[in-house]
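Note to self: user wants both folds in one dump. Writing first protein now.
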Amino acid sequence: MKKRLTSLLCVCAIYLVLLLAGPGLMAQSDSSTHLTLKQCLDLAYSNNLDLKQAELQAATIGIDYRQAKQNMLPQINGSIEHGNNQGRSIDPFTNSYLNQKIEYANYGVNGGVILFNGLATQNGIRQQRLALAAGKEEIQQEKDNLSINLMNAYFLVLSTADLLEQIKIQANLTRKQVERLTIMHQEGAVPPAQFYDLKGQLASDEINLVNTKNQLDAAVLDLCQMMNIPYDPGIQLEPLGPQDFLQAYEGNPSSIYQTALGALAVVKAANLRTESAEKGVKAWRSQLWPTLSLNGGLFTNYSSAARTAQFLRTVESPTGDYVQINGTESPVLTMRDEFSMQKIAYGDQFKNNYSTNINLSLRIPLLNYMQTRNRIDRAKIQLKSAELVEKTTRIRLQQQVEQAFLNMTATYNRYKTVLQQVDAFQESFRTAEARFNEGVLNSVEYLTAKNNLDRSNINLIIAKYEYVFRTRVLDFYQGKPIW
């Protein structure tokens, strides 16, 4: 009897130590190596490829916005043309026909600025500015989706790790009983059925231990893949504190939904897309107005056939006529200037052939295959689609908030009930274990009490982390930090 009492006290002491130490085993490791939820999120933000793709799309929209603003600037174009002609052609210098090889060059600068086009440019700028703001919100939306998924994976690792520790406690307790019964079985002091019942239970606990370890490895792998980092089976996560699950969640679905409307990026993005589509309709309607523009240009040219007369001298030249002077014919002479044709230098032509123009242009759209009207109709359809997406987003958000609040309430109620169940089964198992060790309780009744306590402890761990996750989701809807 003394030997049995000593064995009973040892087993009870071991069980209490393991039960008290189990939930804190992860917290006993070096806290400096722990990854917090925020650190995991930061890693995921920096490594997630879908998020980077969303950032590139927003950068593209930013270029479109920049171009929309730069459409207010004038257009300025320059032209340079060099070439040669052979045969009959027009001299670009004199516009006369030539039948020789000439080299020519034309230079021009022209530009124009739109003075009025029905505010199409201004509406286009507003449309792209709203589209850029929506693109930035969609980046945040990608982050939000990633945050929820990663938080779920993070808590799954923590809960599975706690389950593993709990199952280790269960297996260790069963192993101690098997070791005690082994000695007694060898001495013939215990029925064989009880001994083998406990051995079978130990095998079941070890199978659960292996399965749970595999589940933990899979959960860690999933978390690493979400952060896009190499798989690290030894990764350490910051455990939760008691303050995370010891109190009821305050709030109601209606107030949470109203807060979420102003906090969530998915709602803001939908609103901005609708406003952008409205400006798109206005921009296309502006295409029906006349366009007034101011234009001007500066031009010059060069021709190798260009010549200029260079004065040499004045000489007397007979005209072929005669006059009678005293009965004698005398030839009529005239003074004639002599010139030498000199090629005009390239630089001189460039300076001397300048010409300019300036004009006001009014373009009135009369008929262009009804393209503008059809584009306006398409813009209206896009607006209706954006409005439908915005309405759908609000409805789905309300449904998600209501469902999340219902899930949180149900989980909290289950968590409180499981707490009471654990207390009851702990007392039941304490009594059953004492009676079993005294030999007044059979193995079936002992294992029933033990399995009831084991299941309630496992259910408590699951309910605890599910409740924390549900509350963090509601925090997320309200724009509160989830770490």
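First done. Writing the second protein, which came from a different request thread.
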Amino acid sequence: MADKVTLTLTGSPIGCVERQRETLRGLGLTRRGKTVEVEKSPAVLGMIKKVAHLIRVDSE
């Protein structure tokens, strides 16, 4: 069974560069306070690093 990571958008993407906003959309985080569960993979971990200052990460 694959590991999953729970992400919650805590900061606002307003004022961020477009690339960071696209990364948030790619993770499924479209509005503040939204929580999503994603599969842990190298690609997703790289995306998390790029927007770490805007999200809260909870591992399962």
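Dump finished. Worth passing along: The domain at 4-59 is CATH 3.30.1390.20 (Ribosomal Protein L30; Chain: A,).
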